[in-house]
Amino acid sequence: MRKYRRYFALALTLVLVLTMIVGCQSPTASSNEKKEGKDKGSKTESAKGEKDNTLDLYIPNYFNDVEKQQWEKAVNKFKELNPGVNVNVANGDVQVESGKLPTLLQSGVNPPDAILMNAGPGRVAVLSDVNLIQPLNKLYEENNWKDQLRPFAYDLISGEEKIYELPHMLDAIGIFYNKDVYEQNGIEVPTTKDEFIKALQKLKDAGVSPITVGARNGYAIGWLFGVMLESVAGTEKVEDLLYGNGKWNDPEVVKVAEMMADWVKKGYITKESVTQTQADSKFRFLSKKAAMEAEGTYLITDLVDQKLQSSVNSFMMPSFIEGKTAKPVGGIGLTWVIPTKAKDVDLAAKWFNFIVSKDYSNIVLNLPDYNFVPASKASVGMVPAGEVLKTSMKDIENGSGYNPSVFIGVEAKEAYYQNLQGLVGGLTKPKDAMNNIEAAAEKDRAAGFKLNKN
Amino acid sequence: MNIYDSSSSLEIDKKKSLSIIKGRNKIKFKKMITILSFLLPALILYSIFMLYPMIDAVRFSFFDWDGAAPSMNFVGFDNYIKLTDDKIFIKALGHNLLWVVLSLILMVIPTLILAVLISRVKKGKTFFRAGFYLPSVLSLAVVGVLWSKIYDPEMGPINVFLKSIGLESLAKNWLGEPYFVIPALVIASTWAFYGLYMILFLAGLQNINYELYEAADLDGAGPIRKLWSITIPSLRNTLNVVISMVIINALKGFALIWIMTQGGPFYMSELVSTYVYKAAFSMNKVSYATAGSVVLGIIVIVFTITFNYYRERSEN
């Protein structure tokens, strides 16, 4: 009996060790066979030798059912054009700042074939610097994507030797306003600096919060500051800041920070915004508790979802520089990348070809609830069915301004978000805030971060 | 008996004692094997899942590594030197210490009092025990969202109540003002964890000999005297466990802060854990973040050892 007990104990120990070894394996750990297959031609072959024709996409979370239905329509069209191809769509957090996307890619577990992520060199570089995504230069050549993108979009992503992304849409961040609130207070859409300031004061006096912002989410306070920066300092100044030798503590930039702090003091931006999330802010705006919000075209699906299309529209904050017109800010909002460990690059390329095609633009722009300005050349000249998107597309016909959050390095971005929160919360002084951002940007420069544009 | 007889008997004795020693050694060896076979599974798990990552973390902290590059540059103590110069990291450490102090004040004493009160309840003890334990079963994500709404400056019940009774000046932006944000977060954290500590105290209270209270009653001791002279000394071991756990959890706190403030606004609630998370996963500074974690780990270990050392010394 004792003898058997020993064998039993030994067997149990072996099982334990084996279980641990198996348990520690990644569920999708690639076999050598698969790796070799990928190296040869980026194709996945099943054990039986059949080609696995499934495209795995990873895209942002749907904010509502409207967005879900839009994607379903686009995917169905792709399937119709590519018989035999299955598409798996997974949703998740696609912001580099939260750390989830880098973690997902670093884990190497179930890497998708293509990811639609929040764009910008400052974000994409976080993944490309550590080889989590692959360069697409060869695919650009093979598929002639350069000529299929709007020149403005292509220029923004092709400044470096290697291209890592295919722009999906262009941002057009401006001021969204509640038409009813404006009408009730006798306010017209402001076209000059004075009219804008007058409108803010009038709304404040009427007991309406003029501007709401979800400052707890750095990107949202970044939208508002980006819009103010474009209007007050102008596109050239921002370009110099991002691509040239401009400094964040330049007096003209500090002036914008002072203006933001002043607006908080005057009650044009509520001080409570500092702890408000973007979702809270959107709720305040859509429930007409606030007159305006700096937003992108993302808002359109919410407007459709809540049947508010006719009561909300957008405009760009007037330029504070005499004789100039301010453009909506943005750059590329969402962009496609291919993970280094993607299992089927060919299918991903097929999907990218669909994204830049006329078929895709036709499908999406004919949806009255579609909320993005496509980055493809095919979409130029098309008139979208939705009224708000029509306004935004018209506004960026000749290019857009810059949303700094998208273009700055990782150190500067963290400092940018925190210091702008500090400004709204009255926790820091404008000059100090800009000095802090400049100090962080200097760290990025020292680490080799430099933006180039075609 | 001749000399040969005695020498042969000596040899026999020697052989006997040798075989006894061998036998003892064999028994000792068998015992050792038995002990090891019991310890081995746990030891293997502990080594793989605890020791190895910890040692690896320390190793990473001496390199310059972004988390994915195939090569790492050895930089010695550079990351640690940079940390001493990093104002935000120092600020985060300060916030961690404040968090520990507030947690000890808000968690240990009120939870002990609550446990004593529940232990005195004659009817419905289970109901109260389960009721007060309920927050502990909620996920921290839920707790975070819940308390964010409670602290909402406009719609949150705290400010709505204060405004309704005319104390508008006391209505604050609890998560947005420098003096309130950390205490507000600690209160939310206390709410999430007090059930666990209360159960520990209740278990400790059940082990106190009731005759001590009866004797104290005969001597005319009041409730405070009984709490101070019987309950607290009898709960010494439980108190030690609870205090150790509160300190460790306070220093390691992450989820709730991440959900409620992400370390903001303007770094006002930045803790070492949130700071190193951002550094590692948003900025690709994995080795720098690891150095920060190692510093925090050392602080946790020093705190725990010092506390236990003083506890043992005072007991002796």
Task: Record the SSE blueprint.
The complex is a heterodimer of chains A (454) and B (316).
Chain A: H1 2-23, H2 32-41, E1 54-60, H3 65-81, E2 86-92, H4 100-107, E3 114-118, H5 121-128, H6 137-143, H7 151-157, E4 166-178, H8 179-184, H9 193-205, E5 209-212, H10 218-233, H11 235-243, H12 251-266, H13 278-286, E6 290-295, H14 299-305, E7 312-315, E8 329-337, H15 345-355, H16 358-365, E9 373-374, H17 387-395, E10 401-402, H18 404-407, H19 410-424, H20 430-446
Parallel strand pairs in A: 1-2, 1-3, 5-6, 8-10
Antiparallel strand pairs in A: 3-8, 4-6, 4-7, 4-8, 4-9
Chain B: H1 3-60, E1 63-64, E2 73-74, H2 78-84, H3 87-120, H4 125-137, H5 140-150, H6 157-164, H7 181-206, H8 210-218, H9 223-234, H10 236-252, H11 255-260, H12 272-282, H13 286-315
Antiparallel strand pairs in B: 1-2
Helix pairs in contact in B: 2-13, 3-7, 3-10, 4-7, 7-10, 10-13, 12-13
Overview of the molecule:
The complex is a heterodimer of chains A (454) and B (316). Chain A is of the alpha/beta class. Chain A has 20 helices and 10 strands. The longest helix of chain A is centred in the N-terminal third of the chain and has 22 residues, at 2-23. Chain B is mainly alpha-helical and 316 residues long. Chain B folds into 2 domains: 2-61; 78-315, Orthogonal Bundle (MetI-like fold). Chain B contains 13 helices and 2 strands, in the order αββαααααααααααα. Chain B has helices spanning 3-60, 78-84, 87-120, 125-137, 140-150, 157-164, 181-206, 210-218, 223-234, 236-252, 255-260, 272-282, 286-315; strands at 63-64, 73-74. Chain B has a two-stranded antiparallel sheet. Chains A and B meet through α1, α4 and α19 of A and α1 and α12 of B.
